[in-house]
Amino acid sequence: MGVDTAKEPTAKRHFSETLESDPNATVPLSEFLQLRDTCDGMRRTISQLVRALQTIFPISQLQSLGLDLITSPSLPTSAPLPNTKRSPIPAVPTNIVSSWTPQKIAAEAASMIDKSQRAVVELLTDNPDDQDQEKKDRLKINELARKYNFPLPSKVFRHSCSAKMRPLKIQFNSKSDRDAFVKVFNRDIRKSEFTDLSRKPRARRDLTLDELATLRASRKTIYDRNKEAGKSLFILSDIHVKSNTNPRPFL
Question: How many CB atoms are located within 10 Å of the residue 129 CB?
């Protein structure tokens, strides 16, 4: 008769160590402030991801992928301020979303957040053959930031395309920083810094492909209607046509 050599499972040891609390222990203020800033940044990122996911995906789809918990009210969210408009984010068609994985959804949400913090400058002088073009663009934008007191961007680069003047994309750390740049550029910079250009550069928010198509259609409508009337009856408001309350001769 063989001897059973199977060993009895080792009993788990109970953890008995405790951390001693020193009431006189201190943490350097700089380390505390750094930790606080890190936590605040994580909280904002989570809040942005939650809002993006809630906006572009139906809750039923999130539930089917096991992601409904991330939209729980217990997570930090920020409600829009009174009398403010949230930038529209187009919904993703259900037939496309149904094949997406949680990783794909998270990547799409992060992409939408990046886009919401990015500005685009059109008609800015460009030399695609110059390898230092983006470096020159970055130095120019940083110089304008100091002169006109708008936040420094985190990234400046040209959109990859075959256009003679490639759009300049400017990434900021928040939507409010992006909005501040677009406002001061269109109000002050384009008129003061580019007096030698017949077609002045213009700034706008970064757009999805559908929004870009709407923008182009609106610009064509405005041009055709104003040219026909001989005065600026219509103007552009974001990406839509708007009546001009103070029309001027259209040249």
Answer: 6
